[in-house]
Amino acid sequence: MFERFAKDARLAVVSAQEEARGLGHRHIGAAHLVLGLLAEDGGTAARALAEHGADLAALREAVRRSAGAPAPAGAAGTASPPRRGLLGRLAGRGHIPFTRPAKRSLEESLRVALDRGDTTISGGHVLLGVLRTGDPGALRALTDAGVAPADLRGTTERLLGEAA
């Protein structure tokens, strides 16, 4: 599936991994995907989020709060063994696994692209995938950061239509 990802979507997934790592989280959740999309300035998803006043620092704090405090560094069982996969190579570090909701969001982004007749998956498709799956953590983080998910969906669809 990742071979269909446009550059902005690939970079957003790598940024999501870095955001999860920076927050001390051991998995990449759907909320981390939203963080990664916002961090990749200039893409459709980042523009949609910006139109709704999304701020990277506020969203990061909302994700941190919704996921709970990270495990203390060096605590027993907190280190993930370094594995190399597509994302691990791109990030140059050990791979952090996706949660089931994040995987479903990425799978849904493919469905969004196919439904629209698009041949590649952009960051906008990934954002719509997250919104379609309705992951409570991602929706809570968006809401806590002052973004209304239903309104964000409409804006993202509009921007994708303009980009076509």
From TrEMBL:
UniProt keyword Hydrolase present: yes
Keywords tagged on the record: ATP-binding, Hydrolase, Nucleotide-binding, Protease, Repeat
Gene Ontology MF terms: ATP binding; peptidase activity
Record GO biological process: proteolysis
Domain Clp R: 2-162
Pfam families named in the record: Clp_N
Keyword Repeat applies: yes
Protein name per Swiss-Prot or TrEMBL: ATP-dependent Clp protease ATP-binding subunit ClpC
